[in-house]
Design brief:
793 residues; mainly alpha; ten-stranded parallel sheet; 33 helices; elongated
Length: 793
């Protein structure tokens, strides 16, 4: 996964990226789209830049035709298609290649690679086909050469020409055939005997059927040998194989590591094997014994002594067999070994899981070895949780890279997302993340959640990671996708995970601007929330999820008419009545429901849906919650105040439409007004509120004769009390808002028209005093600041 870069690309790089985006490359091609324009001639540097970018494109097969004429787009023999999605490399046939790397370009076949570069047989010195497959049955060991040649002669397999088989590339110095289906019998018979210049050979994950005797002919040239996960790995054949290795005296690099999915360390079953390896290979500089028990094997002093006597200089080592080294190794692989955490270790670089340095080296060396990466992930998580990691950004980049590489591996995704949670949540790490890092974490977790939608652990981790970022600022680039994924999780996961998801959705809706909220109907957000609530109503089951679903609806409908309309269309009013009937003792849910319906009541065209006997009875009942009925003169508790306040606000908006629309016989309009006034008089105007107003305009409409059909005293009383309470408890936040929206002028009008000595008149007077005091304070501050500026100048 490539991360956004902070530095600005050069103009050349930007142009090349543009050409490799979509079908823009066609402007450089002939009309047949098979060759570059005759007038196009690129320098090797530009051609190389274009090639590097094109291999990442979704149109790589088509863009490669730009390189079909090597004089126009020269690559200087360097062909690197590693990890590319390319499936046809025929256009590269004209290039005289000396370096060809096609590792993990799994849409290619080895046959294609050999056929395409057949004319480079005398020049090719590096060939890497790691993880590619071969179709030629002879190369796979499935047919004899006569049968295969007969098929070639009959044109059944035209690409199986003997002239381009691997053994004909006899100037190779490096050959990587790890993780392929090439037959070792074929390699040992038709390839290795002809590679007289070979210095580096990688046979990782192949099944070797003999004792590697053919390698003895390379004893003068072979410097590096990788036998990672070589099978069979025990028994007499393995012993004879190591006997061959002991004769490769020029070896500087040896990899005999072993990784199993079960995580168990491997034993070769050969006594003192590590001592024999080190004692037999005098030039050894790099040794990888990860995943084996070689580092843990004990070695008697009497076995060491002969080597120690022969060598004038040795090293200190906690691993006995390595004490006979004459100088420290450049590299020592010890993943899965208990020795990785001990010292001294005679190597400049060590892999393992003991510390931060080893873990970072693991990512660099074992990126394609999934068992080692998974073990590394587990250790990274432990160190992150213990807050001892010094380079969290480096680990973040590696974790994201491996999660992207192993997207299908759920164990990698769950473990990686757990690490990303700590990197993005713990202050000691989070402060080191910039915007690009945050976006990379969000994007990768979202991709993983989408890929593994049915896995509860991945959905849980993904949601928890999202909570660590600023909403909605950090999510602008994936907002819709994240909402859709969160909705899926709410609908399909168990209650615990769904609850976390609806927490996330609620946070996204609560902090979102209107531009995000209006997308809710298109994204089906309200439908999913209504379905979640209805499901629990049908089951007569109350849980935390239903509370948060109503809270999300409250946030979604806030000053967003389109969402209020959608809520009504989906039967929101009837759902409210059902929830109240079943769960009336759950105050949080009641408060959230009334908050949602309060938003609906602010929309004039929708208020009629609330003007029913059933709704009015419930609103009237909630003006004075049951818990406070026996103490009718006492101020309400905080929770009861929120419920009573919201119910009264809904009724205030309904009353503002005038008496003409009141078609309900019971309860009567007069009774509702009396209940409202009685309720307001029990409220504590100094009570703190669990509410956040972004604007007072809906409240001020109840006081403005140009905005309301009827200026009912009770509606005005509720509006004035609301403003009085908020400006008393939170003056710094709300007085300025009230002044900015023209509230002072409206309040003076209300005060003038109200009956002297009435509750409305008195509350209005007190509110105007607060405003006046605030204005005087602000004027005094301005004078002081002005005076200070004058004195300083």
């Amino acid at each position: 996964m490539s991360l956004p870069r902070e530095n600005v690309d050069s103009l050349v790089d930007s142009c090349i990226q543009f050409l490799c985006t979509g079908e823009n490359f066609k402007c450089l091609m002939d009309s047949d789209l098979k060759h570059p324009l005759r007038s196009l001639i690129l320098s090797p540097l530009l051609a190389h830049k274009l090639f590097v970018n094109c291999k990442k494109s979704d149109h790589v097969d088509e863009i490669l035709h730009l390189f079909s004429r090597s004089p126009q787009t020269p690559l200087n023999g360097f062909i690197d298609l590693s990890c590319s999605a390319v499936s046809s490399i025929e256009p590269l046939r004209s290039h005289q290649a000396c370096f060809v790397n096609c590792e993990y370009a799994t849409n290619l076949k080895i046959d294609q690679v050999l056929e395409t570069f057949r004319n480079s047989r005398s020049y090719l010195v590096y060939l890497n086909v790691d993880s590619l497959r071969v179709d030629n049955p002879y190369l796979k060991g499935e047919e004899d050469i006569q049968t295969t040649q007969m098929e070639v002669d009959n044109n059944q397999h035209p690409t199986f020409d003997v002239d381009c088989w691997l053994g004909r590339f006899n100037n190779l110095e490096t050959l990587v055939v790890a993780n392929t289906n090439l037959s070792y019998d074929y390699l040992s018979r038709e390839v290795f005997p002809y590679l007289n210049h070979l210095t580096h050979l990688d046979l990782g994950n192949l099944v070797v059927t003999d004792d590697l005797n053919v390698l003895k002919s390379m004893h003068k040239t072979l410097r590096s040998l990788s036998l990672y996960n070589l099978e069979p790995s025990t028994g007499q054949l393995a012993e004879r194989r190591f006997s061959t290795i002991f004769q490769l005296k020029k070896l500087q690099t040896l990899d005999i590591s072993y990784s199993k999915d079960d995580g168990m360390a491997h034993s070769f079953g050969i006594d003192n094997l590590l001592l024999k390896i080190v004692g037999s290979l005098p030039d050894l500089l790099s040794l990888d014994i990860s995943g084996t028990l070689l580092g843990d094997e004990s070695t008697d002093r009497e076995r060491l002594q002969p080597y120690l006597n022969q060598r004038p200089q040795t090293v200190d080592s906690v691993i006995p067999a390595l004490q006979i080294l004459q100088s420290p190794l450049e590299f020592l692989g010890l993943v899965s070994s208990t020795m990785a955490g001990r010292s001294p270790l005679p190597a400049k670089v060590v892999t393992g899981t003991a510390n931060e340095k080893q873990l970072l080296e693991n990512f660099s060396r074992y990126r394609r070895r999934k068992p080692f990466i998974l073990e590394t992930f587990h250790s990274v998580y432990q160190l992150l949780r213990d807050k001892v990691i010094k380079k969290p950004v480096d680990f973040m980049l590696h974790v994201i890279d491996c999660m992207d590489l192993y997207l299908d591996a759920i164990e990698i995704q769950v473990s990686g997302s757990a690490s990303l949670f700590h990197i993005s949540s713990d202050d000691c790490y989070k402060t080191q993340l910039n915007l690009f890092h945050k976006r990379a974490i969000i994007k990768q977790c979202l991709v993983s959640m989408k890929k593994h939608q049915g896995h509860e652990g991945m959905q849980r981790n993904g949601c928890l990671v999202m909570f660590n970022f600023e909403i909605p600022d950090n999510f602008e680039f994936v907002y819709d996708d994240l909402v859709l994924q969160t909705l899926y999780t709410i609908e399909n996961m168990n209650t615990t995970v769904s609850r976390i998801a609806i927490h996330l959705l609620n946070a996204m809706m609560g902090h979102a601007d209107r531009q995000y909220k209006v997308r809710a109907p298109r994204l089906n957000v309200i439908q999913v929330l209504v379905n979640a609530i209805s499901k629990r109503v049908n089951e007569a089951r109350h849980d935390e999820l239903i509370d948060h679903a109503w809270s999300s609806l409250w946030n979604l409908t806030d000053e967003t008419e389109v969402n209020c309309s959608r809520f009504i269309e989906l039967g929101g009013v009837f759902m409210f009545l059902q929830c109240h009937s079943l769960f009336k003792d759950h105050q949080d849910m009641i408060r959230n429901m009334l908050g949602c319906l309060g938003n609906v009541a602010e929309v004039k065209t929708l208020r009629q849906s609330l003007l029913t006997s059933e709704c009015l009875d419930v609103f009237s009942e909630l003006l004075r919650p049951v818990a406070s009925m026996d103490q009718s003169t006492d101020p309400l508790s905080h929770a009861d105040l929120e419920i009573s306040y919201n119910a009264c606000g809904i009724l205030a908006h309904i009353l503002s439409d005038g008496e003409a629309i009141w078609t309900v016989e019971s309860p009567s309009r007069a009774q509702i007004k009396q209940n409202m006034h009685s309720a307001i008089m029990t409220w504590n105007f100094r009570g703190e509120r669990n509410i956040n107003y972004r604007s007072f305009l809906p409240i001020l409409r109840l006081l403005d004769p140009t905005k309301s059909v009827a200026l009912e005293t009770e509606s005005q009383f509720w509006a004035v009390w609301a403003l009085f309470n908020l400006c008393t408890v939170y003056p710094d936040k709300y007085v300025g808002m009230l002044l900015g929206e023209g509230g002072e002028e409206i309040l003076h009008k209300v005060y003038k028209d109200a009956t002297a000595g009435s509750d409305l008149h008195e509350h209005c007077r007190l509110l105007l005093q607060i405003i006046n005091k605030t204005e005087k304070t602000e004027e005094s501050k301005e004078r002081e600041e002005s005076k200070e500026r004058e004195e300083s100048s």
